[in-house]
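I have been asked to look over a protein record a colleague put together. This is what I was given:
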Amino acid sequence: MIEAAGDPDLDAVAALADWLSARPEAAIDAPLFVRLDRGGKPMEASVSRSTTRLRDEGVTLIVKEAVASIGLDPGTFLSASLRAGNAQGRR
């Protein structure tokens, strides 16, 4: 279970709540993570879920940009680094 963090910048529970509130039109069975349009707003499934679902490559780019922004080598990180087993093993 993920618990709320004391630091709002590190609070995954609050971040998820914010993300869900940004997507009030999303169907209950819609993908949780979707691509963003050019304005930075979530793209909801109007044609098919496969066109809006965030793909592996998109997650990898996000991870690499975040890692680079804190001064680490993005070449040593992949989106697979976020999987539950890897994240839990880093505690």
Summary: Residues 16 and 55 are 19 Å apart (CA to CA). Residues 1-54 form one domain.
